[in-house]
Amino acid sequence: MSQKIRTRFAPSPTGFLHIGGARTTLYNWLYARRHKGDFILRIEDTDEVRSTDDSVTAILDSVTWLGLNWDEGPKDGKTDTGPYSPYFQMQRVHIYRKYLDQLVDGGKAYRCYCTKEELDEMRRIAQLEKRPPKYDGRCRNLTPDQRKAQEAAGKKFSIRFKMPTEGATVVDDAIRGQVSFENVLQQDLVIWKTTDGPTYNFCCVIDDHLMEMTHVVRGDEHLSNTPSQIQIYYALGWQPPKFAHLSMILGPDGSKLSKRHGATSVLEYRDQGYLPHTMRNYLALLGWSTTESQQLFTDEDLISKFDLEGCQKSPATFDTVKLNWMNGEYIRQTPIDELIKLAMPFIEKAGLNVSSGPDLKRVIALEHEKFKLLSEIPRLIEFFYKPVEFDPKAFEKVLKAPGAKDVLLGLAEDLAQAPSWTEKPLEERIRAFVAAKALKNGQVFHPIRVAISGRTEGPTLFLMMEVMGKDMVLSRLKEAAAKI
RNA sequence: GGCGCGUUCGUCUAGCGGCCUAGGACGUCGCCCUCUCAAGGCGAAGAUCAUGGGUUCAAAUCCCAUACGCGCCA
């Protein structure tokens, strides 16, 4: 009988959740969901200096917004829930201590009394001699007497893990296959700091084992640490989980995605008006694909098709243009009522009052296919709710054109008599007006559009007039004419 | 410096020895639709598969070097 799949995302709360972390979270989540397993969130806050509560909150908000629900982990910045609680590493230090003692007592780890200065010196000499700057293991085989002497001298110590000195450690990676590392070349890494605290590589092993992780899916940057971690599993008599190392995400210039490429925080994408589903779909495709090279996926689709084996080994460049296209696709698929709910915060933020004036539902429907970001909705609909602001170029080119003023005035008079203010009759009436005056369509249609919206581009004209309403259209036609 | 990873259209990718005169998607360009802008439809351009050697009747696909990029250790 196969084991229940358990995956985790284990961020350090030293900043916001960035795009790379979001993708790692997504892949872990997808894998767990696909196999009806559990997805766990764990906060790796052992770096007391850099960890902040705000970061914890930002990360939880980000993962929540992305819609990647976790089965165990923090409930908020301080408390958590699940059978393996606590999920905050700082609350687990006593556990790490226990296993640390076990390793030291078993001769698998040892006290290292070297000071920072000594280590720096060691490194300097190694570099001069063109040797790899590796810890030379001078404290590895101290006699009890030598240790006593060091401690009598009041020397502080860190704890190092004894790496095997021969053979190789093979990482069986779900994405990269078997990657082999020679043990001699690995250092005796510090698992407990002089300043009295466990190190990342140590906690990670203990927690992943105790929390019964079956798969560790994480960024590429951890691949080189994996052999050391595997050896710690062995030293504790444990079976390592299956690993999968994801390639990095690059900015448009080919360097690692960072702030200078624009938005990197998940929350920034939320604030720009991307839909969570867009992020899930786009991020899934950034480094993973199906053989049919399908682009648009429902969540069910994604869950049923996602697989670690289909992941790309090479780094991927984040492409905002494609992200925008995809967001447009999903906005178009969003029913109007739901879209309005999503758009309201952006409309309010822009200070646009839509409580009176044309029916918002109809206005949104008019522009629906144009939205790529929720944040651009206010700009595209504002002229329905605010006095017309003429685009200077449109004003010059269209309204200043010969005859435009007469057209607007004539039309205002004619339309005032219109018995019915709906799209079709309006179109017929205006076309008749064009014919009667022996004008061309453009000579009438364009000035109307600019007069009532201030711009040259916008929704289909006659329906826009219908939605705007007779009074607003007529007064705008007259106002525009007066300004020419 | 050592070790590790990577390299197919501008971008994301398909490809796992013959179906590849390298397919799809985004973007770009053209045409159609048309009251503008979008959306939509149709079509086009775009990759000597990083380079150089092998292996094989046959290589983007297997092997070996080199280059470049990146990561980790410090």
Question: Care to give the gist of this entry?
Answer:
The protein has 484 residues and is α/β, with parallel strands linked by helices. It contains 20 helices and 14 strands.
CATH class of the largest domain: Alpha Beta
* Distance from first to last alpha carbon: 81 Å
Shape: elongated
Secondary structure category: alpha/beta
Major sheet attributes? 4 strands, antiparallel
β-strand number: 14
Structural domains: how many = 3
What does the oligomeric state look like here? single chain
Strand share of the residues?
5-15%
Strand order of the largest sheet: 5-6-9-10
CATH topology of the largest domain: Rossmann fold
The Cα radius of gyration reads 32 Å
Low-confidence spans: pLDDT under 50, at least 5 residues?
none
Mean pLDDT: 93
The CATH superfamily of the largest domain is identified as: HUPs
The level of helicity is: 40-55%
CATH architecture of the largest domain: 3-Layer(aba) Sandwich
How do the strands and helices of this protein lay out in sequence?
Elements: E1 6-9, H1 19-34, E2 38-41, H2 53-66, E3 73-74, E4 80-81, H3 93-105, E5 109-112, H4 116-128, H5 144-152, E6 158-161, E7 168-173, E8 177-182, E9 190-193, E10 197-198, H6 200-210, E11 215-219, H7 226-235, E12 242-246, E13 249-250, H8 266-272, H9 276-285, H10 299-305, E14 316-317, H11 320-333, H12 336-349, H13 360-367, H14 377-381, H15 392-399, H16 404-416, H17 423-437, H18 441-453, H19 461-468, H20 470-483
Parallel strand pairs: 1-2, 11-12, 13-14
Antiparallel strand pairs: 3-4, 5-6, 6-9, 7-8, 9-10
The structure holds one RNA strand of 74 nucleotides.
